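Q: Got a minute? One more chain.
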Amino acid sequence: MPKDVGAMRKDVGMRHAADDRSSSSGVAVLALQGDFEAHRRKLSEIGIASFEARRPEQLMQADGLILPGGESTTMWKFFETLPWEQAIREFGASGRPILGTCAGAILLAREVTNPGQKGMGLLDIAVERNAYGRQLDSFIGQVDAPELGGPLPAVFIRAPRIRRVGNEVETLAWLSSEPVLVRQGNILAATFHPELTEDERIHRLAFEAVAVRARRA
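A: Always. Here it is, folded:
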């Protein structure tokens, strides 16, 4: 695994061999802002087709959805220009899988603080933005994930902290005693960046059903 966050970003910056069509079946990766290329590369490595979603109507064709890291306030500005919020809510209500990482987890949360911000409420958690500090305070560590077979490498970049977990939310990984990977039904969220490591378990967990259908096709 690369030694630092900058090396990881450089390593995943190369374009993957996945299909670059603007709309397709497969997993939609929100491509408005953030490190969406790294997610597409990870999906390609585990044999799952993906495409960059740049308009909300593209989600209608998707089998799954990733809301990547980036800047949640910037993403909300994009959401105000087109009916993204409605499209994502309808996607979640359909039962299709959603993975949100870092800023994506903030978008999915019910409550957002530091500063206060709107959340979609698709996941019954409260998050505190930038809770580990600024960009210079980003770090690489391991989180405890017994449900996934053992420790996971994790990259935290201006990461949020989960301050509250609802009764229907399952915690799948912890950093010390704090939840960092949670699931509620078809919604999975990580406060870190699983796409920046070599570990595939979180993407497999989120989209295993998609992968099974692809193998049978």
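A: The first strand starts at residue 27 and ends at 30.
Q: Perfect, thanks.
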